[in-house]
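Minutes, project check-in
Item: structure for the 336-residue chain
Input as provided by the requester:
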Amino acid sequence: MTWRISIFVLLLSIGLIAGGLWLDYQHFLSTPVATSEPKTYVEVPKGSSLRGLAERMTAQGLLKQPYYFIALAYLQGDQKRIKAGEYEITPEMTPAVVLERIASGKVVQFAITLVEGRTFRQVLAVIDGHEHFGGEGLASLTDAELMERLGRLGEHPEGRFFPETYLFPRKATGLDVLKRAMAQMDKVLAEEWEQRQPDLPLASPYEALILASIIEKETAVPEERPAIGGVFVRRLQRGMRLQTDPTVIYGLGERYDGNIRRADLREATPYNTYVISGLPPTPIALPGRAAIRAALQPAEGGALYFVARGDGSHVFSRTLDEHNTAVRRFILNQNE
């Protein structure tokens, strides 16, 4: 009889211990990680094991029971899904939430936005001014040096980078952002070129990029872009000069002080479309997809001229007489 009591006591003790461990494990699951900081970052090196991750988090004070964390991973089938990267941990996260983030590869992402209509040098200033790229000094490189580092030696950088918001991990570089933006522009330009209208006066995707950059600079009204594209395409088809102020401004470079003078319109720069025929040699800014589409799918019509109203929109005219009337009204403020 005594041995039966001993076995009962042993089993009861094991049950109580197991039950206690189970309750303790449940408490572990429902309790947020141990951090008092608004944000804590965990770096998971490439090739890290589950055990190594648990030990790293314990060393940072985030876990008190690393073996519970390991057990959780096995129970969820995440023991082999640990992904390298930097992860942001906040005080309200439970161990299960932290594990899901790491197993899913939701690494810390930072954002940078390249804006339509900006020049390449303005983009470099934005990158160099970003808190995570400070010290790289990309703007100090020549165009040729930069394009060589990007693997595109011999190409002009203007207009080559697609304007949008890019997310990147902390260890990314400014060159990494430029490479992504360049690849995205290649992709978008190829897609839009495939959908182009027939018989356009554009011999290559690069010429479309040049025209798109001019359209981007000419109007801030999205609905007008196809109409602006139509004017420029018709002028090119008829051998008329584009006569667009943004190209003049780009050709002036740092000499531009906010005003275009008569002498500027007569100055023979490679970008002065009042002087040169056809397109300038390179883009003059970063065009977005809408501007590229406007260059390759311009609006039909007969307008050959346009003038700004003063509110961001434009008046379009078919004849020079109509255009001159619009200029007198909206530019010279002479009502007839």
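Outcome recorded: The longest helix spans residues 2-30.
No further action items on this chain.
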